[in-house]
Amino acid sequence: MATNGLTKLRLLITLGVIGLFGIITFALAAVTLGTLNKRLDAVDGKLLAIAAGSLTTLSTVITMTPSQNLSLVTSIDVIDVLKHLHELQSIADRANGTRAINTRGFNETLQYIKYTLSRKTNFTVIEDSFPVRDFALNSDPVFISSVNGTIKIYTFSLDLTKADFLYAKYSTGSNITDIGYVSVIPNGGCNETDWQNVISGRIALIKKEGDCSSRQRISHATKYNASGILFYNNGRSSEDLAPIKIILSQDNILPVLFLSHKVGQDLVDAILNQSSNVTVQLGIDVKSLPAFPVGNICAYTSSGNATQTILIGSHADSVPEGPGINDNGIRLK
Ligand SMILES: *[C@@H]1O[C@H](CO)[C@@H](O)[C@H](O)[C@H]1NC(C)=O
Ligand SMILES: *[C@@H]1O[C@H](CO)[C@@H](O)[C@H](O)[C@H]1NC(C)=O
Ligand SMILES: *[C@@H]1O[C@H](CO)[C@@H](O)[C@H](O)[C@H]1NC(C)=O
Ligand SMILES: *[C@@H]1O[C@H](CO)[C@@H](O)[C@H](O)[C@H]1NC(C)=O
Ligand SMILES: *[C@@H]1O[C@H](CO)[C@@H](O)[C@H](O)[C@H]1NC(C)=O
Ligand SMILES: *[C@@H]1O[C@H](CO)[C@@H](O)[C@H](O)[C@H]1NC(C)=O
Ligand SMILES: *[C@@H]1O[C@H](CO)[C@@H](O)[C@H](O)[C@H]1NC(C)=O
Ligand SMILES: *[C@@H]1O[C@H](CO)[C@@H](O)[C@H](O)[C@H]1NC(C)=O
Ligand SMILES: *[C@@H]1O[C@H](CO)[C@@H](O)[C@H](O)[C@H]1NC(C)=O
Ligand SMILES: *[C@@H]1O[C@H](CO)[C@@H](O)[C@H](O)[C@H]1NC(C)=O
Ligand SMILES: *[C@@H]1O[C@H](CO)[C@@H](O)[C@H](O)[C@H]1NC(C)=O
């Protein structure tokens, strides 16, 4: 821990449910760490391996040219990674096959990480807990359009080959009897200038394009008083036709659906035809569920400049369907 780089920098590692809330942030040396992260992805064990004791090396690597020095990557032994994976598997085996949040398997995972970090590193390790609101619907959502009085009722299905639309997790409810007019937002709605012509109280129709997160688009929609959001896929390739499952931030205050490319594009075409009367109705019946606590483990270097902190994050939770993680590093666009 004696390199020049380290004395200047502070490191914070968090292991928890960061994915729920969007992106992993690299405060400094983003390019370097980005490369590093890609490399680590190849070793399907990710930060656990680092957490278990390779951090001295990480501090060194960030001062180097990324493409030249792979010493951190080679310092991670697959055997070591597998040891942690086996531990996580045992935890899941004892806990009904999963380590998802709000299960015993998740709590035990946190204890394992905390114990390992405390014992094998010199980090200051803390566990942090916060409430997460659960989300479920009482019934399948409904989406209806009317063009000059011709009504279309679309298909909701979790089978993406059949689905015309999906709901977004943490959407708010919407009454099917409410009739909404729609504003087409250009360029994916990333830039505030795209929202200048939105009429307050209309539902924003947004194609999945442009370089920003759903969170950013939704914050524009909220600011410009949209009454809801219809995202639709961009149709650039055969992979981009079906609706997409998205998760919003828990403080979202709008009803949000995600439409297939065809449904979205047909609506855009109808709306851009000025003389047509286009309306939509969204039926989203949200269940009211209690919040539950979720833990994060944070590990800090005790030295370093707090204003130059590098933050590295990773999931600790598994999917509900099994013991593993399948969405590390995803950033919703
Ligand atoms: C790569 O980093 C290691 C320390 O982690 C250092 O010993 C080695 O000299 C570096 N190699 C190059 C080519 O910079
Ligand atoms: C274990 O999983 C099964 C099937 O998913 C479920 O029915 C059961 O309630 C779970 N038990 C516990 C203790 O979570
Ligand atoms: C997990 O731990 C939290 C406190 O840290 C506790 O409130 C919660 O009941 C635990 N959940 C399970 C499923 O054991
Ligand atoms: C933790 O700090 C002690 C005392 O400075 C040092 O001997 C030890 O090698 C450090 N351990 C790790 C894993 O860095
Ligand atoms: C939806 O709106 C109708 C008419 O305003 C009302 O009668 C009904 O109770 C509302 N349904 C819900 C679930 O709020
Ligand atoms: C937003 O659009 C304006 C005007 O077109 C442009 O000047 C600005 O650079 C854009 N900002 C971003 C973040 O794209
Ligand atoms: C949105 O609504 C608020 C409250 O009604 C109003 O103050 C604000 O000017 C509206 N913003 C836009 C962009 O219409
Ligand atoms: C509007 O829609 C009608 C009926 O589909 C079509 O005949 C007409 O050409 C459209 N007008 C424009 C400007 O697209
Ligand atoms: C809707 O009706 C208007 C006339 O009222 C007509 O100009 C327009 O083309 C119609 N749109 C469609 C899609 O049929
Ligand atoms: C447009 O259609 C809606 C129903 O979808 C209807 O309530 C409204 O009166 C229509 N507006 C015009 C101008 O025809
Ligand atoms: C910490 O970093 C800031 C700039 O990011 C610098 O202004 C400050 O002097 C540094 N503090 C120490 C103690 O090095």
Q: What are the segments in which pLDDT stays under 50 over at least 5 consecutive residues?
A: 1-6, 18-65
Domain count, please report it: 3
- Do you know the CATH architecture of the largest domain? 3-Layer(bba) Sandwich
* H/E element order: HEHHHHHEEEEEEHEEHEEE
Q: Tally the helices: what do you get?
A: 8
- Please report which band the strand proportion falls in: under 5%, 5-15%, 15-25%, 25-35%, 35-45% or over 45%: 15-25%
Written overview of the protein:
Pfam families: PA, Peptidase_M28. This is PA domain-containing protein. Residues 296-330 form the Peptidase M28 domain. InterPro entries: PA_dom_sf (IPR046450), PA_domain (IPR003137), Peptidase_M28 (IPR007484). It is a single chain. This protein has eight helices and twelve strands. The chain has helices at 4-8, 30-41, 47-61, 71-75, 78-94, 104-120, 214-223, 261-272, and strands spanning 9-16, 124-133, 142-147, 150-153, 165-167, 182-185, 203-207, 228-232, 256-259, 278-283, 291-300, 305-315. It has a five-stranded mixed β-sheet, covered by helices on one side. The chain has a four-stranded mixed β-sheet with strand order 2-11-1-12. The longest helix has 17 residues, at 78-94. Residues 1-6 and 18-65 have low confidence and may be disordered. The structure holds 2-acetamido-2-deoxy-beta-D-glucopyranose (NAG) (11 copies). The site of one 2-acetamido-2-deoxy-beta-D-glucopyranose has 4 residues, from helix 3.
